[in-house]
Structures are given as structure tokens and as C-alpha cells.
Amino acid sequence: MPTNVSPTMGQLVGVVEKPSSTPGVxxxxxxxxxxxxxxxxxxxxxxADGDTPSAALARQLFASGRVAAxxxxxxxxxxxxxxxxxSEGLADIVVEMYRYWKxxxxxxxxxxxxxxEPAAEPAGDGGGGAELSEAAKRVPPHLLERSRxxxxxxxxxxxx
Length: 160
Prior knowledge:
Blueprint: E1 4-8, E2 11-19, E3 25-30, E4 39-42, H1 53-63, E5 67-73, E6 76-81, H2 90-95, H3 110-113, H4 129-136, H5 141-158
């Protein structure tokens, strides 16, 4: 069968669908590993919890309504089909699993994704004087605020 290739955020996912000698079972070979060296088995949508690539793909396959079970080992995805269904369209689900931007959808620009940052203020309570203030000018303000809040929480826990 031909290889399906899909652009995904600058990467390609290649998928080759191969029939199994067992009726109702289809195998997909990917050009990337999903599970490393471990086996992952999903007998239902409830088994496919978590944020691993294998679990995310299993959820998408189960959502098709045509899949009874999914097994992932490295770059091989084996799918047990529900009775009466074929693998039509399942390869497309695998191909599209990492694709965030679809044709016709313009991705946001870098400027659209950046939050407005106020100018950095020198850290007055850090005890470092002018050296700390110069360094603070190079640190994003949200990180300075997070650091200040963490320092206050630590002081409160220490009783001081």
C-alpha cells in the first residue's frame, strides 16, 4: 500500500497500512516511535487515559466507533476492528494525529502568541543592590514576580 505522509508542525508522519493474517485486525507502521520499547494495550476508551502519544492516538481511534482494541509497540500500531467494520479512514486518523493546523487555517504569528510584558522593575527587596537591579532588567517580569512570590511563601513557612 502507498505511504501516507502528512505535514505536522514542520515534521512528517508517514504511515503504511498493512493487513494482518487475522481477519478484523489491521496494522499501521509509522515513521516514528510512539511507545519506545514498551507495549501499550488499550481495550477501551477508559484504558486510554494519560498524555502519552499512544493513549492520545488510541482515544482518537476509539472515537471513530470502529475500533475494539489498540496495541502499540514502538512504531507499530495494531488495531482490532469492531465486528462488521473495515479499516476505511483509520489510516487518516493515524496520519493526522500530530497535525495541529489544517489546510486553510492560518496559524497565529509569533507576535500574536506573545503576552504584553511590562518593563522590568529593579528588585528592591532582593538585597543585591545595583548588581541585582542590572540582572533583574534582563529577567522577564513574570519570572521576577514568580520568584518574589515563592520567596514570600518560603519565608512564611519558615516563620519569618
